[in-house]
Here is the input.
Amino acid sequence: MKMTTAPDRLMTAGLGSCIGICIYDKSVKLGSLAHIMLPSSVQAKNPENKAKFADTAIDLVLDMMIKSGANRSRLQAKIAGGAQMFKFSGESDIMKIGERNAIAVEENLQKHRIPLLARDTGGNYGRTITFDPETGDLLVRTIGHGERII
Amino acid sequence: MEDFTQLSGLQIDALREIGNIGAGNAATALAQMVQAKIDMSVPRVSILPFTEVADLLGGADAHVVGIYFNVSGPAPNSILFILSAQKAGLLVDMLLLRSSGTTDINNLDEIEMSAMMELGNILSATYLNAMSMFTQLKFVPSVPAMGIDMAGAILDAILAQFGEIADHVLLLETEFTKDEDDVVGHFFLLPEPGSLNIILKALGVNTDG
Here is the structure.
């Protein structure tokens, strides 16, 4: 997970079923980017890498940001990713990990009362995102499915 | 703690042998499918950290084609045959006996997609058979799935589905040659934690000493 202040920007490339979570405090132009892979650390065989689970990553990021001067009540979030990259025959719950990640992220943000201002999730394609803490813009780029700022 | 970067020449040789035999059998199968001669070889075998895979493919947002299989058995793993989108197009040209540059990887029709999937099927079957032969372990592949997108996104989806892949993965670089054209693709075996050691032990060359 990364954190920075304007004019620097944060980027993560090749989000598939993973979700890039941008949490920021616009008044101090401080932004963070967490790249989560799985919804919950609870069932993980190896929960050491807390940054990759939606629940623990958000806890870590908030801690990091508040220690750097962000004000909890001013925090806002934008997210992208959560695609369904492969289609297998006989799909089951396990396969729809992108969707499960998105739901987990939204639930965890809600738990911390951080408003989710924008989301670009779902589909079956990868995304590369760039977040600008100066403007709060999240640039989403894809291969063959356009480019947009949310 | 296993340190796969310290594998001996002997261990690399065992893996290379598996690669060569697999490639040889795959070439035969390909020749029958395509009715033309396609040579295959494994120029390089290595074990590398999973974290380096995306960079090897040109970065997390590199445009690639990946064919993925889930493999069950006593040493469960995932197989991923992956190469740049541009090279994949050339490979499809080879398979369909067309001149280089004919295939548009962004607009694959059913026949082209099916050619790639079938190639994936052949590769996984022959490499896994060679593995089984050497290790006496059973490897049972699932049906294939194909993704054409950013490398990070494809690796990501596999990672998420598995829950975890071991820190180290096995790479068999595979070269396809037909007449003057050649294409190199990456054949990865992504083991679940513990699987790689089971495989290496079964080869009679384990990492404990």
About this structure: Chain B touches chain A through 29 residues (CB under 8 Å). The first helix of chain B runs from residue 9 to 34. Residues 22 and 127 of chain B are 4 Å apart (CA to CA). The mean pLDDT of chain B is 86.
